[in-house]
Amino acid sequence: MQEPETDQESVKDELSRLAVKKGYGSSARHIFLCTGDKCSSSQINAVLWQKLKEKIHQVQNENPDTALLRAKTDCLRICEGGPLALVYPDGTFYHALNEQKIERIVDEHLVGGCPVSEYSFFTQQLKS
Ligand code: FES
Predict the structure, then answer these.
(1) Confidence (pLDDT) at 2
(2) Probe ligand 1: pick from 35, 39, 45, 97, max atoms within 8 Å of CB?
(3) 28-123 adopts what CATH topology?
(4) What is the pLDDT of residues 15-46, one digit of tens each?
(5) Over the range 31-62, which residues count as b (16 or more CB within 10 Å of their CB) and which as e?
(6) 115 CB less than 6 Å from ligand 1?
């Protein structure tokens, strides 16, 4: 059953409002951290996810105008050498992550715009 067109438009408006509220449209970069259990242990990945959240909150508390996006994913389809993360729009993959590396990636790449090349193993923007 199809919703009336006005309902669909109000749903789209609400979703669009939420996207803006969450920082889509004002963020320069989006980091995806794998929390699956094939590339690393899910316990270690959970610790790194917590670290990533705390670090991003710290940055945003210090500078509320900094919009950073983060998401966890069950798999980035590499499944080796984790913990792994991927930063868009650059298409930069990071491997063997730990808490110190997360700190540098947030500061230097997500905020500063410079990928941390010594932690990266592949960079390729998606083709349009
Ligand atoms: S489980 Fe992490 S990349 Fe597949």
Answers:
(1) 66
(2) 39
(3) Glutaredoxin (3.40.30)
(4) 999 999 888 888 889 999 999 999 999 899 99
(5) bbbbbbeebbebebbeebbebbeebbeebeee
(6) no
Give me the pLDDT at residue 23, please: 85
Host H or E run for residue 102: helix 99-104
Bridge-based pairing of strands 30-34 and 85-88 is antiparallel
DSSP assigned state of 89: T
Interatomic CA distance for residues 73 and 84, integer angstroms:
10
Query: In sequence order, which residues have a C-beta less than 8 Å from that of residue 124 and are 6 or more positions away?
Result: 91
